[in-house]
Amino acid sequence: MNCFHCGKGVMYGRSHTHHRGVAGGRWKKRAPKTQRLFKPNLQPVTIMEKGSFKRVKLCNKCLKRIKKDMVDGKKPFLTIANVPSNITAGIAAKQAEMR
Known about the structure:
The protein is an alpha+beta fold. The chain has one domain (11-98). It is built from two helices and five strands. The protein has helices at 60-72, 85-98; strands at 11-16, 33-38, 42-49, 52-59, 79-80. The strands form two sheets. The chain has a three-stranded antiparallel β-sheet. Strands 1-2 form a two-stranded antiparallel ribbon. It is elongated. 7% of the residues are buried. GO terms for molecular function: structural constituent of ribosome.
């Protein structure tokens, strides 16, 4: 799964735990390293694209950028179909502040 806008996807890496003060020498029970997946924080969102609704997955970073652009009065790179009420309240507050 990838982000619809930025293409962020699964990354591969290693994780390990640190054993501190283990009896029996330095290398007997060293910290094991295991392969793992780092998954992006994808959220399902309905957007409007070319006049029709489309269900896509966006990473949380892109979603935060869209919400911030909407509150600041900028044109976001994607149009969210169902705008949460807290964002619309923030937009109204910003517009009242500017007047």
